[in-house]
Amino acid sequence: MPKIHYSVGWDNVNVSQKIKKVVLRDARYVMGVIATIFGILGTFLLFNFLFSLLYTLSKTAGNGFYKWITHDLEFLMILSAPLFGLTQLVASSTYERFNWLMARVLLFLYAILVLILAIVCFIAFGHFADMQ
């Protein structure tokens, strides 16, 4: 009996090359998504850093700015949570628990930690963006 040869227009060499192209295209897409996530996370951390510096200067200024941003509306508090929520939570609990000097020292240390994390996120953003 003769062998039946089924062909879809691909030989073995072209199949491996096409698989490599698809894998590389998908890897570039994934690297782009990861780069975007690190860029957004770094931006949120940078906003939190600036907000923590405002809170370090004055508790009243930090509370006033947060109330001005949210207008005491729940949905605006939820929308602004990535930008200001973490620092608002840390600053409020720190000012309630400690005296003003210790609270400002702790907020300054918190600001340094957030700045270091933001720098790491932007470095990771650059690394993953260059891999595309």
How would you characterize the overall build of this protein?
The model has no long low-confidence stretch (mean pLDDT 85). The protein has 132 residues and is mainly α. It has helices at 12-57, 59-70, 74-79, 81-97, 100-130. It is elongated. The longest helix is centred in the N-terminal third of the chain and has 46 residues, at 12-57. The termini are far apart. 85% of the residues lie in helices and 0% in strands.
In percent, how much strand structure appears in the residues? under 5%
Structural class: mainly alpha
Through-space gap between termini: 51 Å
Largest sheet data? none
- Silhouette: elongated
Task: Tally the beta strands.
Answer: 0
Rg (C-alpha, Å): 25 Å
Contiguous runs where pLDDT drops below 50 for at least 5 residues? none
Number of alpha- plus pi-helical segments: 5
What series of H and E elements makes up the topology? HHHHH
Mean pLDDT: 85
Share in helix? over 70%
Task: Summarize the SSE layout with pairings.
Elements: H1 12-57, H2 59-70, H3 74-79, H4 81-97, H5 100-130
Helix pairs in contact: 1-2, 1-4, 1-5, 2-4, 4-5
Q: Would you summarize the structure shown here?
A:
This protein is mainly alpha-helical.
Keyphrases for this structure?
mainly alpha, 132 residues
